[in-house]
Amino acid sequence: MFTPRRLIIAATAFAMLSGCAQTPYDVQSQAPSEGSSMSKTAKYGALGALAGAVAGAAINHDNRGKGALIGAAVAGAASAGYGYYVDKQEAELRRSMEGTGVQVQRDGDNINLIMPGSITFATDSADIASNFYNPLNNLATSFKQYDQNNIEIVGHTDSTGSHQYNMTLSQRRAQSVANYLMAQGVNGARVSSRGMGPDQPAASNANEAGRSQNRRVEVKLTPIPGAQVSQQ
Predict the structure, then answer these.
(1) Nearest to residue 127, comparing CAs of 176, 62, 179?
(2) What is the pLDDT of residues 38-84, one digit of tens each?
(3) 8 Å CB contact between 67 and 4
(4) Which residues of 89-115 are buried (b: 16+ CB within 10 A; e: fewer)?
């Protein structure tokens, strides 16, 4: 017969297996670091299941081992499910943004799209540049397919000119992007926009190369709290 201690050990093993058993969606440009071969999906599933095992054991005082196994199963499936969802979304965004100049960055469950000023807006303008429409159309298509993210659009400028002017310009640019995405059918309830002006520089404003990096629009994708994620 398994003792509670042995069942908790078994739950821990199950936690690791539940993460690794999920089919990873391999993204070549996001190779695991430090020699690790475990995908993000596997990591989320294993960590989620391990946390669930601990929580389950704590809640079920009468049978901690059984509680740990149940907690591991439920939490592991939920965590790996969202990790798998974001893996697929990230891969699709990388494919659709290839060659556009838009950078796709992943940070855990969040995805950040960085759009340089060279493709977004003309100098001192909040009118969308002609070569920016194609990337935005691709983004709108992706955002309608993957609809379990909040979409925050943030405008940035360099430090040239007055602070207030740059704050206003960056907000107008972010709102222009938001308006266009919503016009293409993206749910407005998911979309927000704000301008940061020069307050969050990505590089030094002391030279043109740095100022060019600072003139950008970022789109931040974060999970909608409590959303039920289906396997795409």
Answers:
(1) 176
(2) 455 555 554 454 444 444 444 455 555 555 444 444 444 455 577 88
(3) no
(4) bbbbbbebbeebebebebeebebbbbb
Q: How far apart are the first and last CA of the chain?
A: 41
pTM: 0.68
Cα separation, 138 vs 118, in Å, equals: 18
Residue corresponding to tokens 């799209």: 113
Tokens of 114: 């960085």
SS3 content of the chain, % helix, strand, coil (to 5): 55, 15, 30
Angle formed at CA 98 by CA 96 and CA 102, multiple of 5 degrees: 95
**3-class SS of residue 226:** coil
